[in-house]
Amino acid sequence: MRVSNFRMGIFAAVLISACGVVPAGAVLPGLDDRQWAGHFVGFSNRAFQFGLATDGKAKIEVIGKNDKTVSRVLAVTVQFAVEEVRPDGKTTSKTILPETLESAQAATKEPRDVVFKGKVKGGASFQASIHEERGVISLGGKLLDPGTLTKNPVRFVIHVNFPNAYPHDKDRTAGKKEMKAFEQKTEKDRLQLKWTDGKSRRQSLSDSIDAASKEINGPGIATFNLEFSTYQKKKFDFVASPNSSMTLSNSGVQPLHDGFTVSWLPDPAKDPEGKARLSFQVK
To answer: Rounded distance, CA 93 to CA 79, Å?
Structure first.
C-alpha cells in the first residue's frame, strides 16, 4: 500500500508539473517557454509585451524596430499592492509575500479572466485579475481582508512606474548645443489627461512640476495618453473604468520625463465586487 501511494504521489507531481499548476499556497505556476521563463502570464503583440512573473512583479516593454524591445531600462513596471493610509494622508505600501501567491488557473500566454490571490506583510489579503482582449490589457483587484492592519485604513492599488525616459542624456543641460539637441529630441513628447469630471489637460513633460498636485490630478484622472521619442513613436493609452480613477506622482519637483508613477484606485464603496478596471494598450 505504501509503495502504491508513493507511486501515485510521483504521478500526481508529474501531472501537476506538466499542466503548469501548483498547489495552493505556493508561488504562482510558471510558463514552459524560453521567452517567458519565470512568468505566470505572458502576452505580446507587435507593439508591446506584458508579463507577470511568478513572484507577482509585472512589467510592460515596448517593441520597436526589428521586433525587439526598445530597452530594458525603459521597461514600465506594474505593481499590485496594498496600501496603508496614515492619518496625515501619506501612504505606506506593503510588500507582497511571493510564497502566498496562488491561482486556480495554469500559467498562460493568452490571459482571459486570470485571477490570482496573495497576502502582504501584515496579513492583508487581496485578489487581482488580468484580462487581454484585442491588444488591450485590463487589470483589476480588490482587498479581501485587512489582516492585522486595522489601525489605519488599507486599500488595494495598482502602481504603474514610468522610468526616466532619457537615461542616456545626462549632459542635456551642459551647454546651449546639448540643450538644443535635447529640445529637438523631445519636442513631440506629449501627455494628454482627461479628468473624471470630463475636463481635459495637456501637460508638459519637460517642465519641473509636483505631479501629485491638485493642479495636475484634479478630481482624479480618467484617461491619459503618453508619448516619448525614446519609445520609437509608440503611444501609451490608459483608461480607468467607472468607479475608479488614476493619480500621478513623482519623487520631487522635476520634469515628468525624469520618471513618474501612475496610481490606480478602485472605489470600494461604489465597486464592492471589484469590477472596476485599469485598461491600457500600446500602439
So the answer is: 10
